[in-house]
Design a protein that fits this description.
The complex is a heterodimer of chains A (389) and B (320). With 389 residues, chain A is of the alpha/beta class. Chain A is built from 19 helices and five strands. Chain B has 320 residues and is α/β, with parallel strands linked by helices. Chain B is built from 15 helices and seven strands. Chain B is globular. The chains are: A alpha/beta (389), B alpha/beta (320). Chains A and B meet through helix 11, helix 12, helix 14, helix 15 and helix 16 of A and helix 9, helix 12, helix 14 and helix 15 of B.
Chain lengths: 389, 320
């Protein structure tokens, strides 16, 4: 048995560092039937989502009916697994709690899985708990509306340290307290990671000699950026992303953001040319599903960009987080009004929304100063405000 | 109720009011007068009267009952052919109201459908041929599969000529009491590129600022509608300010929601207005073409465009 299983809280009282969430989950189960029928616990890994669900079940004497994302990969399985649980209520003595763990693990490919889940939320005679790391994806819009949302925050360093010390004491591991402190800081709010590290340590006699897996992603990517940008290319540099706990797509965004901070003029052009080549291979991977191209993407991104400079660089450069994704998101928020105006306009004057969007500057000018048109199109206040910007 | 939107207010309501499409209009009119129409395909550029003609046909056939007997769909807005089929099915299920034994479905921008979807559409057209007539509109009839073309009477619509546009402008000016300078008409015609809807929209847009329509004012309105800031992006790049060029480019792409390919088109045109040597213009054009190719091949247009901007920075330094 792993330590994380062994020390999973048995009741809600044992959950530490998530006081607010515990209160809310108690309320949800106690008042089930009066409000929404499912609750989504979301937050970073290792913050206690599954633990809270299990503890809530035990405390209320509910049998957990657990569905991992990997259990149902399609609509068919979803309905065969879930339907009996939902419909055979009278056959079972114990009441149930349905747990759908890691719902964001249900990939886009699971065609029909999500609508089925939403349908089941409407039907379920038992409280449902859904866990997720990230629930803000567009595809979860409808799911979010159907559920209570409960965010779990990263667990504070002090609480992680207390728990690790306790477990270490019970297990009889004589681990230096400095090391526990370091381990707790490195966990970055991920309690499971901390406990797993402790377990790894407990198996090794000479634990001071091992280097803990770096949980701090940013330190990793900063180091890689620094090596690639500052140092001369070496064969080792091609493996540099192996140690970065981040997808190659994300790494590419980090480079895109930071190339201009390091390179100028010809070096800039060369570096971007190589980034562009890496992206071509990425495109080919997507289109042809030929994953060996990843090798080239990787080499252009590491050795390639490192080779774009004439001499190695010195000095400190502060690298920035990729900002494009955030900008795209913010922009989408801004253009919601534009879209709804175009929708109303296009129905009214017999054109497609696409064309209305393309010609929006002219249309906006027309709508802006004419209250009659605003009335005619039944624009609401927010839309009028947007048109007048 | 008279609409305040001019494209609606001045939408022709009789066959004779449609300008510039005499041939097609005459044939459609005589078909309509026979009280029986075949499936029809209206092919031609935007803003030349396709939707308008369909509306006139419908109003002519059904008079005051036209709304009950008419379904308008837009292929580029509906989510897939199945949505189209579902809507058609629901609409075609009930009998037409009045004397005409069929209803009319207008499917705008039918060329937005993939060939596979068009095959499905063909089946739908056959299934409901006793109760429904289809009027399809498209920009290019070549993008419509042959089996559909062979089931339709095809009518071509052409871009409006200057005299047609003038006719429309004069009529609106009279009704709206606008004072339009002759050179403004010229600019309007050039700016609308033969698209009557666009012409009227630009006109109303201009009139919303002043009833005195001068060439300058029209030109300002038109220039506001183009991705003009591309020039600013290139100016930043040529002056060596890569970071600003990059930020401005992203800003434009997001705000105006234009694609990488649209940006490339604009850049390719703008190169010829740049203050650089002819040899460099040629080099930059080559780079632009290569970038367009890479956008098609790659996955992230914005990365490819940044790479192109880096080439412009070099060109600004007088290097290749």
């Amino acid at each position: 048995m792993t330590l994380t299983e062994k020390y999973r809280p048995k009741n809600l009282g044992e959950i530490k560092g998530q006081d607010e969430a515990v209160v809310k989950i108690k309320y949800f189960i106690k008042n089930f039937g009066k409000g929404k029928r499912a609750i989504i616990l979301y937050g970073p890994p290792g913050t206690g989502k599954t633990s809270i669900a299990c503890a809530a079940a035990k405390e209320n004497d509910l049998e957990i009916f657990e569905l991992n994302a990997s259990d149902f990969r399609n609509k068919e399985k979803l309905s065969t697994i879930l339907k009996p649980a939902v419909e055979q209520k009278s056959l079972e003595k114990k009441n149930k709690l349905i747990l759908v763990d890691e719902v964001d693990g249900i990939s886009e490919l699971d065609y029909g899985g999500l609508p089925e889940l939403i349908r089941i939320i409407d039907l379920t005679p038992y409280p449902m708990i859904i866990t997720a790391n990230d629930i803000w994806d567009k595809k979860f819009n409808l799911l979010r509306k159907k559920c209570e949302l409960l965010q779990l925050k990263e667990i504070s360093y002090n609480i992680i340290k207390t728990i690790i010390s306790e477990i270490s004491a019970i297990e009889g591991l004589s681990i230096d307290s400095d090391f526990i402190t370091e381990l707790s800081i490195k966990a970055k709010g991920d309690l499971r990671a901390a406990i797993n590290d402790l377990q790894t340590l407990s198996r090794l006699k000479d634990y001071f000699s091992i280097i803990l897996d770096e949980r701090n992603k940013e330190t990793d990517i900063f180091n890689s950026l620094r090596k690639v940008f500052k140092e001369k290319p070496t064969n080792e540099i091609m493996g540099i992303f192996d140690s970065v706990n981040m997808s190659i797509d994300d790494i590419m965004l980090w480079f895109e953001e930071n190339i201009p901070a390091e390179y100028k003029g010809e070096e800039l052009a060369r570096a971007y040319d190589l980034l562009s080549k890496a992206d071509i291979f990425k495109g080919r991977i997507y289109k042809q599903q030929y994953w060996r191209f990843l090798v080239y993407e990787n080499i252009f991104l590491s050795y390639g960009i490192a080779s774009a400079k004439k001499n190695s660089k010195t000095g400190f450069t502060s690298y920035k987080k990729p900002s494009r994704i955030l900008q795209i998101w913010m922009n989408n928020q801004k253009t919601i009004q534009k879209k709804s105006i175009c929708e109303k306009y296009s129905q009214y004057v017999h054109v497609s929304q696409k064309r209305a969007m393309n010609e929006f500057p002219i249309i906006k000018q027309i709508i802006k100063s004419n209250p009659n048109i605003q009335k005619e199109l039944k624009l609401d206040e927010e839309e009028i405000e947007y048109a007048q910007l | 109720m008279v609409s305040s939107i001019w494209t609606e207010r001045y939408r022709p309501s009789t066959f004779s009011e449609i300008v510039g499409q005499d041939n097609s209009v005459k044939r459609v009119e005589s078909l309509t007068n026979s009280m029986n129409i075949p499936h029809m395909l209206f092919a031609g550029p935007a803003g030349t009267g396709k939707s308008t003609l369909a509306l006139i046909v419908v109003k002519e056939l059904y008079k005051e009952n036209w709304k009950e007997n008419y379904l308008e769909l837009n292929a580029s807005d509906e989510r897939g052919i199945n949505v189209v089929r579902e809507k058609v099915k629901n609409f075609a299920r009930t009998k037409s109201i009045g004397n005409i034994p069929f209803k009319i479905i207008f499917l705008d921008e039918a060329d937005a459908l993939t060939p596979e979807a068009q095959q499905a559409l063909r089946r739908t057209m056959e299934n409901y041929s006793t109760t429904c007539r289809f009027i399809l509109s498209c920009n290019y009839s070549s993008k419509i599969i042959d089996p559909i073309q062979s089931r339709c009477a095809i009518f071509k619509f052409k871009l409006l000529e200057k005299k047609d546009v003038e006719k429309v402008i004069v009529k609106i000016a009279e009704k709206e009491k606008l004072d339009i300078k002759p050179d403004a008409v010229e600019i309007l015609y050039e700016g609308c590129e033969g698209d009557c809807r666009r012409c009227i929209n630009i006109l109303q847009s201009t009139a919303s600022i002043s009833p005195l329509i001068s060439a300058e004012l029209v030109a300002t309105i038109i220039s506001n509608t183009k991705p003009r800031d591309i020039k600013v992006v290139l100016d930043y790049a040529l002056s060596g300010d890569f970071q600003s060029a990059k930020e401005k480019l992203l800003d434009i792409m997001l705000k105006e929601s234009i694609s990488g390919q649209d940006v490339i088109k604009a850049i390719q045109k703008e190169i010829w207005n740049l203050p650089v040597e002819p040899t460099i213009k040629v080099k930059l054009t080559e780079k632009t073409g290569e970038t367009e190719f890479r956008i098609v091949e790659g996955s992230d247009p914005f990365i490819q465009l940044q790479s192109l901007l880096a080439s412009f920075v070099l060109a600004g330094l007088g290097k290749e």
